[in-house]
Specification:
Catalytic activity: DNA(n) + a 2'-deoxyribonucleoside 5'-triphosphate = DNA(n+1) + diphosphate
Structural class: alpha+beta
Number of domains: 3
CATH class of the largest domain: Alpha Beta
Domain UmuC: 4-184
Strand order of the largest sheet: 5-6-1-7-8
Distance between the termini: 66 Å
Mean pLDDT: 89
Subunit structure: Monomer.
Binding site for Mg(2+): 8, 102
Shape: globular
CATH topology of the largest domain: Alpha-Beta Plaits
Low-confidence stretches: 341-357
Protein name: DNA polymerase IV
Number of helices: 13
Radius of gyration: 25 Å
CATH architecture of the largest domain: 2-Layer Sandwich
Length: 357
């Protein structure tokens, strides 16, 4: 039986804006533009209470929530935070299937820590996301992707829902048909017209009837009504680096303290790389100052770094070049990457036999 986790960040874009601007906390926020043709890209939970949703026109959103505050999207920031979250996922398993910047499936049936409990893994991931980004995530844990996806939405925000194999069919039977993944408003209205309002109602219909009314999707509805989903988690990202970042409780301005933090971080990175049998040629140091200014420094070796002493010396060398004139440091990150040569085929001259004239 597989162990699948679905992680979904809570109001991702809007939560980042509220995190970075204290004046927006507790206020209904929409990411987007408030102009005549503006559209809401994302809405905070405060805004959602007024019925504001993504893809809604700004005019309609303001009509529902006159106090709505619009902020422009910062996709570079969202992508950076997303990368940090995805790196946490890959620390547990390489079987990660991102769906967007803020959600992904993880198959942790076999995982890097040999942890038997997917629920404990999900809890640990949510804790690490909060510590690393200041954001909350909701998680669903179950035996397949369909159930995990529904479960992650069951106790939002900042929730964790587990659906065991024994509970699966009863859980699905009690769902409203609108809660089924892939059933939108139009399909739900058609099902209501057929007397299908819950998972139990859907389960009463034959596969042939559902295919007749809904085409190929009818096969999926038939299986989902029985809590069946045979899709595998399909990773679409090749690991290019292994790293670790630490955000300090208090900003650090003393070189000696930074060196101690770097040594601890280097040990963690090397441990993670060893657990994955990962080798790279490039060591990268990331520094974020107290004013959120960020710099990176890297060193690339001609061959793979296979000794911890070599990795540590390179990391310390990069740190020695960091100037604290810009202020104290709030975040230090270290990674090893550039593994591409491992997959490069051996190349040689092709030979052809030409017929003699």
């Amino acid at each position: 039986m597989r162990k699948i986790i679905h992680i979904d960040m809570d109001a991702f874009y809007a939560s980042i804006e509220q995190r970075d601007n204290p004046r927006l906390r507790g206020v209904p926020v929409a990411v987007g533009h408030s102009g005549e043709r503006g559209v809401v890209a994302a809405a905070s939970y405060e805004a959602r209470r007024y019925g504001v949703r993504s893809a809604m026109s700004s005019r309609a959103a303001l009509a529902r929530c006159p106090g709505l505050v619009f902020v422009p999207a910062r996709f570079d920031v969202y992508r950076e935070v997303s990368h940090r979250i995805m790196d946490i996922f890959f620390d547990y398993t390489d079987r990660v299937e991102p769906l967007s910047l803020d959600e992904a499936y993880l198959d942790v049936t076999v995982n890097h820590y040999n942890m038997p409990s997917a629920t404990i893994i999900a809890s640990d991931i949510r804790r690490r996301i909060r510590e690393a980004t200041g954001l909350t995530a909701s998680a669903g844990v179950s035996v397949n992707k369909f159930l995990a996806k529904i479960a992650s939405d069951y106790n939002k925000p900042d929730g964790l829902t587990v659906v065991t194999g024994e509970e699966a069919e009863a859980f699905v039977e009690g769902l409203k048909i609108e809660q089924f993944w892939g059933v939108g408003k139009v399909t739900a209205d058609r099902m209501h017209g057929m007397g299908i309002h819950t998972g139990a109602d859907l389960k009463m219909r034959s596969e042939a009837e559902l295919v007749w009314h809904f085409g190929k999707a009818g096969h999926t509805y038939y299986l989902n009504a029985r809590a069946i989903d045979n899709r595998e988690v399909t990773p679409d990202r090749v690991r290019k680096s292994v790293g670790c970042e630490n955000t300090f409780f208090a900003d650090i301005g003393e070189p000696e303290m930074l060196e101690r933090e770097l040594r601890a971080t280097a040990e963690e990175v090397w441990r993670r790389a060893g657990r994955r049998d990962f080798y790279g040629r490039t060591v990268t140091l990331k520094i974020k100052y107290s004013d959120f200014r960020q710099i990176t420094r890297s060193h690339t070796f001609p061959g793979f770094v296979t000794e911890y002493g070599q990795f540590l010396d390179a990391s310390l060398g990069l740190l020695s070049g960091v100037d604290l004139i810009y202020g104290k440091v709030r975040l230090l990150g270290l990674s090893i990457g550039n593994p591409a040569d491992l997959e490069q085929p051996q190349c040689g001259q092709l030979e052809f036999d030409f017929p003699e004239e």
